[in-house]
Structure formats: C-alpha cells, structure tokens
Amino acid sequence: MRNIAIASAALAVVLVGCGSVPTGSGSAPAHTEACKATDEQEISALFDRWNRSLQTGDPHTVVANYAARSILLPTVSNKPRLTEAEKEDYFHEFLQYKPTGKIDLRFIEISCNTAVDAGLYTFTYGTTGAQVKARYTYTYKWDGKQWLITSHHSSAMPERN
Known about the structure:
By secondary structure, the chain is of the alpha+beta class. Helix content is 30%, strand content 34%. 16% of the residues are buried.
C-alpha cells in the first residue's frame, strides 16, 4: 500500500511538472497550438495541387502554393528565390517549357502543423519531350486554413543513368 501511495505522489509531481503554469503576476496564460490532423495521403496531394498549378501556365497561381515567408531553391536556376516576385520570375521562365512532374520515390514525415515530402521526381517538358530527373524536398506548414510550402528544394540528379 505504501508503494502505491509513493507512486501516486510521484505521478502527481510529474503531471504538475508537465502543466503550463503562468509565473509572476500578470503573465499571459500559456498558449497551446492545436495540431491539424493529417495523413500521408493529404500531404502527397499537396504535390498534385502544385503540379496542377503548373499546368495553368500562370506563375502567380503556382506561387500561391508558397507561404509569404518561404524559400525556393529551384532545379534550373542558381538563384535562391525568397520573395513572391522572385518566385514568379522563376516560374515565368520555367513554365515556358510546359513542365509536368511525376513522383518516382517519396518519403513523408508529419509533425504538428508541419510536414516534409522528399524524394525523387521527373519533369517532362511538353515543349520538347525532354525529361529532367531531380531530387526534391518540400516542407509545408498549416496556416490555419491551408497547407503552404515554406521551403522547396529541387536539384537535378548528378549522375546520368
């Protein structure tokens, strides 16, 4: 019985330690972020949404997939794109090739209101039929309404097969 009492007291101390208790007078209550429930199917569909936006041929539509604070490290440009205008400039050029992407290998990791989709994809240019195989990483953040890209890295595969 004594062991149960000690265990109960220890558990109570642990549980109190896990709680958020404001310190000092006038402190704001602790803020707890609610996590958006999601799964790999929803996260993988974000690439499909982005790929469909490419098909519009409109750089602004493509850039609407990106958070205001985000970075694009594109496949066919050495310049990192941080602003909306820089991203639109890149896609204005890239969309002239009428690209279509296809995922070849995918790895998804999901956390509270963030997700990573990384792997390999192939772009086929509608204008020439040429294909570019590349590695990719998209990081997404839930903004309370939708998933947006916070970073997008794409680099052509270094080895030719």
